[in-house]
Design a protein that fits this description.
Layout: H1 7-17, E1 20-25, E2 40-47, E3 51-54, E4 57-60, E5 65-69, E6 75-79, E7 86-92, H2 94-99, H3 109-112, E8 121-123, H4 126-141, H5 147-172, H6 183-194, H7 202-209, H8 213-224, H9 228-245, H10 250-256, H11 262-273, H12 277-284
Antiparallel strand pairs: 1-7, 2-5, 2-7, 3-4, 3-6, 5-8
Helix pairs in contact: 4-5, 9-11, 9-12
């Protein structure tokens, strides 16, 4: 398997080939704005990067941290070290992951199971980091006769390991805690996520929290790296994708996700996902 050097290319290849792709990324690729994509993502930090905003949680990033992001998680690297930002990203088509799972072993669990102690972040031990990098090296160096079988076997073994780490953490009830940061921003994130079905404005937030609009925008951007409007749009699109995949009608999804009218929903969804809500629903429910 060829090791890629672009997150977007890995994303496109995994979906196009209904398979998975591995990218080794450095500081030269600009981080994307808050986004959602139709593949699973495994993000392994080697160096650089300071914070990850995933849904309504902000996580600190340290070397050896691994993040599990599913196709409905809106996410964004909020702070990046300009000098060095090295990471390994695996993009996986969800259907491929399900196809190699069995009744006894659901490799999908690490992306889909969201228990009380759920966290997107795993802080790997030195031994676990070594095993992870061993599997990655094996994947990107496989070629010649039998390479497809070796890739599949190595990929399966890698995700058996990851799911075991997740299961052990759940059993110990010691999930990685989100970062502690500005308490006001924490309250704002909670309020926004509890009111996504309503058209919340900056003015509404200002009145609710008794702070000025300019101040609320400034502290939110400083803590999360994105604006309130971009954050709200990304979270609403994330939820819309999940509801459409469940077979809920487009009009109802538009209402439940807090868009002011269908034309705004259509424009935002198509820009983010690449296809209209109706086509996305047809694709998921065919």
């Amino acid at each position: 398997m060829k090791e890629l050097n672009s997150c977007k290319e890995a994303m496109a290849k995994s979906i196009e080939n209904k398979y998975f792709a591995v990218a080794h990324l450095y500081k030269d690729e600009k981080a994307m704005e808050m986004h959602i994509h139709d593949c699973y993502e495994v993000y392994f930090s080697i160096s650089g990067g300071k914070q990850f905003l995933i849904d309504n949680q902000v996580y600190d990033i340290a070397p050896g941290d691994l993040f599990l992001i599913n196709q409905y998680d809106s996410h964004y690297l909020t702070q990046i070290d300009k000098e060095l930002h090295e990471r390994i990203v695996i993009m996986i088509d969800p259907e491929y992951m399900r196809s190699i799972s069995t009744e006894e072993t659901n490799l999908d669990a690490c992306f889909q199971n969201r228990s009380e102690h759920f966290s997107h972040k795993l802080s790997l031990t030195q031994e676990q980091q070594g095993r992870f990098l061993y599997f990655i090296n094996k994947l990107v160096t496989s070629n010649g006769y039998g390479h497809d079988l070796l890739e599949r076997a190595t990929f399966t073994e890698l995700f058996v390991m990851i799911n075991k780490i997740v299961a052990d953490r759940e059993n110990n009830t010691e999930a990685e805690k989100p970062s502690t940061y500005n308490e006001q921003v924490d309250s704002i994130l909670s309020y926004l996520n509890n009111n996504l079905q309503y058209p919340v404005s900056i003015g509404d937030l200002s009145r609710h929290f008794y702070i000025s609009e300019s101040y609320i925008c400034r502290i939110f951007k400083a803590a999360t790296g994105t604006t309130i409007n971009k954050y709200m749009t990304a979270r609403r699109i994330s939820i819309a994708k999940s509801l459409l995949a469940e077979g809920i009608g487009v009009s109802e999804v538009c209402e439940r996700c807090g868009f002011s009218d269908y034309s705004n929903f259509l424009k935002a969804f198509t820009k983010s996902v690449g296809i209209s809500p109706k086509k996305y629903s047809q694709y998921c429910n065919k």
